[in-house]
Design a protein that fits this description.
The structure is a homotrimer.
Chain A: H1 3-8, E1 11-15, H2 21-31, E2 34-36, H3 44-50, E3 53-57, H4 63-78, E4 83-86, H5 94-106, E5 111-115, H6 116-122, H7 142-152, E6 155-159, E7 163-166, E8 171-174, H8 187-200, H9 205-223, H10 229-241, H11 251-254
GO biological process, one term (chains A, B, C): thiamine biosynthetic process
Pathway (chains A, B, C): Cofactor biosynthesis; thiamine diphosphate biosynthesis; 4-methyl-5-(2-phosphoethyl)-thiazole from 5-(2-hydroxyethyl)-4-methylthiazole: step 1/1
Catalytic activity (chains A, B, C): 5-(2-hydroxyethyl)-4-methylthiazole + ATP = 4-methyl-5-(2-phosphooxyethyl)-thiazole + ADP + H(+)
Chain lengths: 256, 256, 256
Amino acid sequence: MFTTILNKKPLIHHLTNAVTINECANMTLALGGSPVMAEDILEVEEMVGHADAVVINIGTLNAASRASQLLAGQTANRLKKPIILDPVGMGATTLRTQFTKELLEAIHFTVIKGNVSEIKTLIGQVGRSKGVDVASGETLDFQVVHEFAGRLGTTLVVTGPVDFITDGKRQVKLTVGTPRLGYITGTGCMTASLIGTLLGAGYDAFEAATYGTYLMGKAGEVADEAAGLGDFRMGLFNAISLTTEESLKGVLTSGE
Amino acid sequence: MFTTILNKKPLIHHLTNAVTINECANMTLALGGSPVMAEDILEVEEMVGHADAVVINIGTLNAASRASQLLAGQTANRLKKPIILDPVGMGATTLRTQFTKELLEAIHFTVIKGNVSEIKTLIGQVGRSKGVDVASGETLDFQVVHEFAGRLGTTLVVTGPVDFITDGKRQVKLTVGTPRLGYITGTGCMTASLIGTLLGAGYDAFEAATYGTYLMGKAGEVADEAAGLGDFRMGLFNAISLTTEESLKGVLTSGE
Amino acid sequence: MFTTILNKKPLIHHLTNAVTINECANMTLALGGSPVMAEDILEVEEMVGHADAVVINIGTLNAASRASQLLAGQTANRLKKPIILDPVGMGATTLRTQFTKELLEAIHFTVIKGNVSEIKTLIGQVGRSKGVDVASGETLDFQVVHEFAGRLGTTLVVTGPVDFITDGKRQVKLTVGTPRLGYITGTGCMTASLIGTLLGAGYDAFEAATYGTYLMGKAGEVADEAAGLGDFRMGLFNAISLTTEESLKGVLTSGE
């Protein structure tokens, strides 16, 4: 846990998927934040008002959740709260691609985090999204992402064997991590929760995006000593809960 | 596991939140009960008919779940089944406060369990609920809670550094536990599942409320040897599954 | 993990319950597959089109999920994708029994997996389903199941102390497992995910059903060294992730 975050206990409002909702809550807590997952449209605006940051994840949509996500995002913009989007599976179905576009037209995101397929679809190239946890083997020109981030005024995170973070001015590449992070569900979602928690604690967008991505990769390296995937999964929570602010020294400049 | 519960296998019907629904099912099983989570309004009444106790938790609401919770509660009353309410985040949003009031007007609860903010809101004082997992640093006059429980004819549980359980006649304070129970999501929800399981197994309301609260606190103490929060979380399930009826000796009179 | 599955990374589309959705995703990954849980009716057909197999589980229904499950199943049939049904709690409520019948009339399932109560209800005998995780102590004439499977043209799996798998021609009994598999939630659901993953990887229905059932039982035996239920639960994921194709040698002929 980060003592500075624990002392502030930023409230991180998640509108997220049903698969990894518990993991996202626990990851937020492990870093020192306080998660809340309120999706009822009758309370979304009020809860965003209480929140220090908002996390939107389109992993499992339905008509009600789509309406709530739009309202939450617009409210966050109105109240100037930081907000992160995880466009899970963007490109995999027309619904996800269209709904993400709808979100992007209605809401300005502080950070958007996706894998190569998702970010490729985001910037208008055709991705080859197959599912939501599938490494696609695709490549992406990071310079294009960098320029797109600048035009959008948003910090973008592309996760993969090399993670790339850019706000259109600054950029960093991270090689931290382990392939096993792809063998449990929700490590991407949890990364967004870490970034959201850092945003809620007052880190700026580029720092929060870089540190959150780094923390998950590093947790994967620490947990990698586990023989099986059950222990590896719990190892991620162990690692984050035992991490302190000290671990971030030099990360911003380590990549490139 | 409690052998007496395991032999009876009481069916505990949960209408609960999406975040901790798996944890609640596993905690019910760890004590020896049998969980079922049926929320479809077309089967709620029939499932309550099968159940030995009902657990209602408002952690993540939507229009459908609110209707089902009301129907489940009214059915439980009609069939004289014990029912526990966990008013998660009551006071945090108007919806949660209003809906809890609606539940209280339509349903008589056997037990209501909340943190200081939630119970404060419940008894008409203004709470300062910020999220759902946030320790508020608020204080509460337990004598007021005691009298309110008497008027309501309900056993009330206030969780916190000191847990307070009262049915308006008997009362007990418990100091068991560890602050780390606040650093994983759902320990409150799981406490309600333990209480519900004890109710379903035939314990009276005051006993079930006290024992369930005690068991979670004690599990936290046992699990506290874990270095990280992942192992601590699993340690709670280990502890409850390895607990027997013997562990409750003297608990009812230990507090005060 | 099965290297052959990991190399193919079959996409397993789940329309499943809220309680064990995370566990099902992680179990699919642990064997080498890629899970996706898309329930929005606007994307169900498209996602089934991407999928290598479909898993339908009626553990927690609502109006939207029922419509999506019907559409997913019909699409799977149309596209000739393998599909498995887990009729959780069939017989416990009228809704579950009726909806399962509706599914069976509209969809041809490659595999149906249930416990004794569920399969008894399925073949028209009256089950005594009480919840969803309750061992009923009922018995079932496996010969009747065998003949029913033949008439249905579906592979049936009956789980219990003795697991019975039949496609109406071949049949096998398995005695692998541990009673503790009944003390955590979702082992049945996860078995369906394992079978679904094997179907998606190209195993035929009888093989996939037998191997998936065997793998979960064997994982239970391996994990049984854990003292408590938290570690036992994680032990299941450890075990599956450390299993290889070698472990299946002789299983098809071991039973009978």
